[in-house]
Amino acid sequence: MNEYVRQFRDFFVSIRLTVGLLLLSMILVFWATLAQVELGVWGVQHKFFHSFVVLQEIPRTGISIPAFPGGYFVGGLLLINLLAAHIYRFKFEWRKSGIQLTHAGLILLLLGELFTGLMSQESMMRIDEGETKHYSESYREFELAVMDITDPAFNDVVAIPEAVLADTGTVQHPKLPFQVRIREYYVNASLQMKSQAPGMPASRATAGVGPGISVTPLRPSTKENEGNMPASLVELAGPEGTLGTWLVSPALGQPQTVAYQGRTWELTLRLRRYYQPHSVQLLKFVHEKYAGTDIPKNFASRIRLTTDNQREDREVLVYMNNPLRYAGLTYYQAGFDPNNDHNTILQVVRNPSWVLPYIACIMMGAGLVIQFGIHLFGFFRKRSAAAAA
Question: Residue 250: which residues within 8 A CB-CB, separation 6 or more?
Fold first, then answer.
């Protein structure tokens, strides 16, 4: 075997690499734990674990440089290391069956974490008693919704994702008779009426409420309790020319209307929506407190789940540690509005690989028990042989 090929192989199957990666993992987790105070859960996940490289900003420069291997890099290399060592040294022996099963479980655990990071989706459903919803909303991602509301019985919606807005390009959708040109996009911004901030320049909007509002860009926040409030300047342009430029933001509250070619359209920047082929209606929300205090004792939501094809129509009670699992989604009782006793917040999770960590833990636990049992059996057998002699 070529010397370079042997060195390449020996590097990936080396136990030193395993120890080094585990050490890097410990440092990464420790650093992320300290950074969570400043960045919050979402920011830590994005910066440390769902990245190949941890970027660190040089103070007072705005320039970020690679500072440490990220979770994807360390976990991916550890997965390659375990697979390579398992394949290269694999030789089934009954005496080592427990170790091999434990290693296989560890590999499956790493794969499960990878698939969860790539495919899982978390959203929320905020719903009032008596209200019915077909969709949940993202916690932090936004979209520009362009809705044809001409027909009172049906809204035709074109949703433009936040990633497209951030590129500030031009969108031409087959359902739209005009182009949507993204002139500016702010991940986080503060909006003020010109009458309240006379010294601030007005936005460059030419239609809707935008001309009377000033926009101040803010530093994006990743903290869990500090959501961003984005804003964007959107120009609509038909074949005959521009129709105007609108300022859109969730802070405006109400959509803005546009009349064109005999139809009426609405523009709104909102949290990204995930529509489902079934609806959820909140029948009753129960919020119990400990006597004499405001400390929550129990909160639960009685909901009605109905599919669009009417094949399923049932009531379900969702409460802490008792979620509803349906059609690949899991509905958890996540919270409630403290100012509204007739409102609930359900966390909606889609995670196709949710079962892998459970299987991996069972495999690892079984492997350890088997290996311990093998050694224990061997110990008793030797002891019995020594006593017989």
Answer: 142, 229, 230, 269, 270, 271
